[in-house]
Specification:
Elements lengths: L3 H8 L39 H10 L3 H6 L6 H13 L5 E4 L8 E8 L2 E6 L7 H10 L4 E4 L2 E3 L7 E3 L4 E5 H21 L6 H13 L4 H21 L1
Antiparallel strand pairs: 1-2, 1-4, 2-3, 3-7, 4-5, 6-7
Length: about 240
C-alpha cells in the first residue's frame, strides 16, 4: 500500500518548489496536507464563529479548486466540511470521457459504495459493447469532468468492468487528481506574463506532465470544454 506522499509523487500533484518555474511559488497554496497547522495557539472560544457561520461561508462557494486547495487547509472542521461536500455532491457531477471519435465514450456517476464511486456508460452502449470496449482498450486515459473543469489526468486507481461497462474509483482520488491539474493550470495562468489564456495554460501544463506535445488531444479537450460551456448556456 502506498502512502499519500507516494501518491502525490507518482501523480505529480505538487509543484517542485526548487524549480525555476514561477508556478512553483504557488505550491504552498494547495498542499495536499490533511492536517491543519497546529503551530499557533487556537482562537479564544469567545472569539470563535459559530459553526453555522462557518458552514454558510463554505457552502457559499462553488469554486471547487479554491475550496479543495485553500479552504480545506484552514482547519480540521473546514477540511471535514469540504471533503463532505466533495464526497456527497461534487463526485455526482463527475463524468469520465473517452476520446473515441463517433462512439459515445462517456461514463456518468451512478452511485457511491462507501468510498468507491461507480460510473456507468449509457444504457444503449450495450448495443455496441464490443466496439466500445475494444476502443477503450486502445485509448489513452479518459478525461475527467467536474463542472466546467475537464482534464485527462491519469487516474491509476481507476478499475474497469468491461462486461457491465462500469468504472470504479475512490472518490478522493478522482477529486484530488482532477483538481490538482486544475490548480496547476490556475497557477500557470497567474504567473504567465506572455498573454496566454486558460486554454493555452492547459496545453502548457499538460505538455509538461506528459513530457511531449499532443496537439490532437489538446484540441479534443478544448472542444469538450467548449461543448460543456454551450450546454450550460442552453439550459440557463
Amino acid at each position: 500500500m502506498t502512502s499519500d506522499n507516494d501518491d502525490r509523487a507518482e501523480s505529480g500533484d505538487e509543484f517542485d518548489c526548487d524549480s525555476d518555474d514561477g508556478a512553483a511559488l504557488s505550491a504552498s497554496f494547495w498542499s495536499e496536507s490533511e492536517r491543519a497547522d497546529r503551530s499557533f495557539a487556537p482562537m479564544p472560544e469567545r472569539l470563535a464563529l459559530p459553526l453555522e457561520l462557518h458552514r454558510l461561508i463554505i457552502y457559499h462557494s462553488n469554486e471547487f479548486e479554491d475550496m479543495w486547495g485553500n479552504w480545506r487547509l484552514v482547519c480540521a472542521f473546514w477540511r471535514d466540511e469540504v471533503e463532505h461536500l466533495a464526497k456527497t455532491e461534487w463526485i455526482r457531477q463527475v463524468d469520465f470521457r473517452y476520446n473515441l471519435g463517433k462512439l459515445n465514450g462517456n461514463f456518468h456517476f451512478q452511485r457511491l459504495e462507501e468510498d468507491e464511486a461507480i460510473f456507468a456508460a449509457y444504457k444503449r452502449a450495450m448495443s455496441y459493447h464490443s466496439s466500445l470496449t475494444n476502443a477503450m482498450r486502445r485509448c489513452g486515459p479518459p478525461a475527467v469532468k467536474l463542472g466546467f473543469i475537464i482534464h485527462d489526468i491519469p487516474t491509476p486507481e481507476l478499475s474497469f468492468d468491461y462486461v457491465n461497462l462500469t468504472l470504479t474509483c475512490p472518490w478522493r482520488a478522482v477529486i484530488r487528481r482532477v483538481l490538482g491539474e486544475e490548480l496547476r493550470v490556475q497557477a500557470q495562468c497567474a504567473v504567465d506574463d506572455s498573454g496566454k489564456n486558460y486554454e493555452d495554460a492547459c496545453v502548457v501544463v499538460r505538455r509538461e506532465r506528459m513530457g511531449r506535445a499532443d496537439r490532437r488531444g489538446d484540441e479534443w479537450l478544448k472542444a469538450e470544454r467548449f461543448a460543456e460551456l454551450c450546454r450550460s448556456m442552453s439550459v440557463s
